[in-house]
Amino acid sequence: MPDLILALKVDVDTERGTRLGVPALARAFDELGVHASFFFSLGPDNTGRALRRVFRPGFLKKVKRTSVVSTYGMRTLLNGILWPGPHIGARHAHIMRAVRDAGHDVGIHCYDHIRWQDGLHRMRMGEVRREFGRARAEFERVFGVPATCAAAAGWQADAQSLTAYDEADLAYASDTRGACPFFPTVRGERFRTLQIPSTLPTLDELMGRPDYPEESLATHYFSLLRRNTVNVMTLHAEIEGMAKYAWFREFLTRAMSMRVQFVTLAEVARTTLVAPAAIPVHELVLAEIDGRSGTLAVQGNAVA
Ligand SMILES: [Zn+2]
Questions:
Q1: CA 230/CA 146 separation, integer angstroms
Q2: How far is the CA of 292 from the centre of ligand 1 (A)?
Q3: CA of 275 to the centre of ligand 1 (A)
Q4: What is the pLDDT of residues 165-192, one digit of tens each?
Q5: What spacing in Å lies between the alpha carbon of 49 and ligand 1's midpoint?
Q6: What does pTM read for this prediction?
Q7: Average pLDDT for residues 3-15, to the nearest whole number?
Q8: Residue 154 Cα to ligand 1 middle (Å)
Q9: How far apart are CA 106 and CA 193, in angstroms?
Q10: How far apart are CA 270 and CA 133, in angstroms?
Q11: Does the pLDDT value for residue 300 go beyond 80?
């Protein structure tokens, strides 16, 4: 029987998550000999401005379910409202470099998480270029080399963001929910940056729901893993690295005992791109995902 293959993608959304959650996850990975793919928010942490989403359907329900205040901390929720958002790259470059030096992939999550997640689809092309350009510039300042990969904040992607990726000559991106790596098209326009979708739900999409009690969540995840393909699980530094750290350690230990094989997204990209003609082309569409408010980028129908 072939091994189960799992790539762990870590989205780092906040200053607090960078400072506390990232080192905790890196320690756990180091102890177990696992490598993962980290995507950093590189500019100001304006998390507090997400409170505007209160007016969006589904948001309050999620806030209640996932106890946002205890997960993110009151200070973080006021960043960008009561005081200017702290600049994450300026404060924590050494933490980001330590992750890279430990052998993990590092890439761009965003410059300003809120601006990208809530604003991408209203931006003009020039604004998308400017916002992604800021993230690239800060990445290069922190790491000394250009970014080769990105995973969009809030799974927000469209023809303009994919254009910016192609212009930046990325090796791969992971903005979508879906089943397998693909080349994306949007309304007939085809893009050349490989998309590697997250195949599993995130912990915060399942947390606090009566149909998914916490003690059986790990078993639920293992039941979703498929053989003969790469499973991709998105973690959050603020959740698996902090509020649900104990749960995640236990999950990892169980995965190791099941001989789950861990790979990084860069490894997935490298092995997939060996045979580009075999990579399917799919539409990238926006759709709702159970447990999350608003719409996300999703792997749509295959294009002949
Ligand atoms: Zn994020």
A1: 26
A2: 12
A3: 31
A4: 999 999 999 999 999 999 999 999 999 9
A5: 14
A6: 0.93
A7: 96
A8: 5
A9: 17
A10: 25
A11: yes
Q: Rounded to an integer, what distance in angstroms lies between the CA atom of residue 192 and that of residue 168? A: 11
Look up the CATH architecture of domain 5-302.
Answer: Alpha-Beta Barrel (3.20)
Relative to beta strand 194-195, strand 172-173 is parallel
Residue type, 248: F
Cα 145 to ligand 1 centre (Å): 23
**Joined tokens for residue 304:** 């002949």
> Does residue 7 have a pLDDT over 90?
yes
Domain boundaries, the chain: 5-302
What's the CA angle centered on 164, arms 192 and 108, to 5 degrees? 95
| The two structure tokens encoding residue 174 | 């992971």
* Cβ count within 10 A of residue 26: 21
**114: which residues sit within 8 A by CB, 6+ positions away?**
46, 47, 49, 50, 80
Higher pLDDT, 253 or 85: 253
**What pLDDT was estimated at residue 228?**
84
- Interval between CA 1 and ligand 1 midpoint (Å): 35
Render 175-203 in DSSP notation, one character per residue: --BSSS-BEEEETTEE--SEE--B-S--H
- DSSP code of residue 44: B
Q: What does the longest C-alpha to C-alpha distance in the chain come to? A: 55
Q: What is the pLDDT of residue 2?
A: 59
Number of other residues whose CB lies within 10 A of the CB of residue 152: 27
Higher pLDDT, 2 or 298: 298
Question: Exposure string (b/e) for 74-98, b if CB count within 10 Å is 16 or more?
Answer: ebbbebbeeeebbebbeebbebbee
